[in-house]
């Protein structure tokens, strides 16, 4: 038994291996931010439905148009956060940016607690979007810069895993905890993150680029759990420093528009656009925000809040599966399975609701009214193992090293714009088209993503971030 455990802990891919422990701990702690972001998304889903009723937990109620703005203003905040953090992170460093992200998260929960009109929720969701959008820019870069290549996919996929954990926790809290109690408890988390982040240095990549060699060496050895005087550590650090310094000099001298119009660059753009469109317009994130409304429209007799919590659990399982399989089997196969599975399950979901709307068939479906829950669970699980779990892993890895920073920033902004669009139009589509056509449309997008990935996607497993 001792030999078996020792073999496991000495495996290069084991997160508890001596060299990997600090990288794992740092990734876990900074993902408090993504957990808080997920909490806000999950908590608002049942709350937004309650706000439309006479039993609103606040002193006012809202209409569908206002709900669509409460949901979608998160996307506007994401764009602002993407741009602000994109401009700041190379100037002030990843650590200080992470510090600053905790503040708007805190403000969102404070405004939710104090809300006296719908404008409080607009501003709060905008701030939550700024924090979430900024986190989606800096966290994948921070993780990729402290992680060894063999565990980078696993640690990178933890970003969406922690978001999903937060969403599930938000579903549960909004169902069982009083509206004004939840914000008071959750406000502790940004403060906790603020304290924990003090103990971690900035990434060695950033410190090298700023010419702080001594601090960079300390950071490198800290995250690799090596002694500063270890010859192996010094050798690895010198190699990293030489490559980064060389790449930085080449970037300053030679980066031009021609670097953005090469064949590898265009291939990366295509993959990134396909990934973003499949991720957003297949409805995976949008469903999360409007899950209670979806089940209310699905003709199931099961309790909508319990269905929503169940989906949160399944979503968590899907994202956790991605962390287990991402570095073992690669990104490509997970995206194949994810897209095709989402397409099939959403077609089936749309067919069920279509026939359930017809009085001639509705009576025959009462015995299988659990089917919408099963189909939605299948959709979010399969979406979680690929389109969600591998999203930021692939976005970081797919671009050529020379243009990675600029291209990644641009595509994260595109992601945030699509978040706004999908959150804004989804409740309107549900009202105008009905749930069946809406689900079939999302299925079509997922299937197009499957076709694209079959033809054009290249595997990025094991790719060095310093490679072109």
From TrEMBL:
Residues 26-461 form the Major facilitator superfamily (MFS) profile domain. The chain crosses the membrane at residues 21-47, 67-87, 96-115, 121-143, 155-173, 179-200, 268-288, 308-326, 333-355, 375-396, 408-427, 433-457. It comes from Drosophila lebanonensis (Fruit fly). It is found in: Cell membrane. Signal peptide: none annotated. Keywords: Cell membrane, Membrane, Sugar transport, Transmembrane, Transmembrane helix, Transport. Pfam families: Sugar_tr. This is Facilitated trehalose transporter Tret1-like. It comes from the Eukaryota. GO terms for molecular function: sugar transmembrane transporter activity. PANTHER family: AT22075P-RELATED, PTHR48021. One of its GO terms (cellular component) is plasma membrane. PROSITE patterns: MFS, SUGAR_TRANSPORT_2. It is a multi-pass membrane protein. InterPro entries: MFS_dom (IPR020846), MFS_ERD6/Tret1-like (IPR044775), MFS_sugar_transport-like (IPR005828), MFS_trans_sf (IPR036259), MFS_Trehalose_Transporter (IPR050549), Sugar_transporter_CS (IPR005829).
């Amino acid at each position: 038994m001792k030999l078996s455990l020792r073999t496991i802990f000495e495996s290069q891919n084991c997160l508890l291996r001596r060299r990997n422990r600090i990288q794992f701990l740092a990734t876990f702690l900074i993902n408090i931010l993504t957990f808080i972001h997920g909490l806000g998304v999950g908590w608002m889903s049942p709350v937004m439905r309650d706000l439309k009723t006479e039993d609103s937990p606040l002193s006012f109620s809202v209409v569908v148009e206002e709900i669509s703005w409460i949901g979608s203003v998160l996307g506007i905040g994401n764009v602002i956060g993407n741009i602000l953090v994109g401009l700041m992170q190379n100037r002030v460093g990843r650590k200080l940016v992470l510090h600053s992200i905790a503040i708007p998260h805190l403000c969102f929960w404070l405004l939710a607690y104090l809300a006296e009109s719908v404008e409080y929720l607009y501003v709060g969701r905008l701030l939550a979007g700024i924090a979430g959008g900024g986190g989606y820019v800096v966290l994948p870069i921070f993780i990729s810069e402290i992680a060894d290549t063999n565990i980078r996919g696993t640690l990178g996929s933890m970003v969406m895993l922690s978001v999903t954990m937060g969403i599930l926790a938000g579903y549960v809290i909004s169902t069982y905890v009083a509206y004004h109690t939840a914000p008071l408890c959750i406000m502790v988390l940004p403060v906790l993150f603020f304290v924990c982040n003090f103990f971690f240095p900035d990434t060695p990549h950033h410190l090298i680029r700023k010419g702080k060699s001594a601090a960079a060496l300390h950071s490198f050895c800290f995250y690799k759990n090596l002694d500063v005087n270890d010859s192996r550590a010094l050798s690895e650090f010198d190699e990293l420093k030489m490559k980064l310094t060389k790449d930085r000099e080449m970037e300053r001298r030679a980066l031009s528009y021609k670097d953005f119009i090469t064949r590898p660059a265009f291939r990366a753009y295509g993959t990134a656009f396909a990934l973003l469109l499949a991720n957003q317009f297949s409805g995976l994130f949008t469903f999360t925000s409007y899950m209670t409304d979806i089940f209310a429209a699905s003709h199931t007799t099961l309790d909508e809040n319990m269905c929503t919590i169940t989906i949160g659990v399944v979503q968590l399982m899907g994202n956790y599966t991605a962390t287990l399989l991402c570095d073992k089997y690669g990104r490509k196969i997970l995206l194949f399975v994810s897209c095709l599975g989402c397409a099939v399950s959403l077609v089936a979901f749309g067919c069920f609701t279509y026939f359930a709307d017809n009085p001639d068939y509705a009576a025959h479906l009462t015995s299988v009214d659990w089917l919408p829950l099963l189909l939605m669970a299948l959709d979010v699980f399969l979406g979680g193992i690929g389109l969600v779990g591998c999203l930021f892993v692939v976005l970081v890895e797919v671009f050529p090293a020379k243009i990675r920073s600029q291209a990644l920033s641009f595509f994260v902004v595109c992601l945030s714009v699509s978040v706004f669009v999908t959150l804004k139009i989804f409740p309107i589509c549900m009202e105008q088209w009905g749930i069946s056509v809406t689900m079939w449309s999302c299925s079509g997008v997922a299937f197009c993503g499957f076709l694209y990935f079959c033809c054009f996607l290249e595997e990025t497993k094991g790719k060095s971030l310093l490679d072109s």
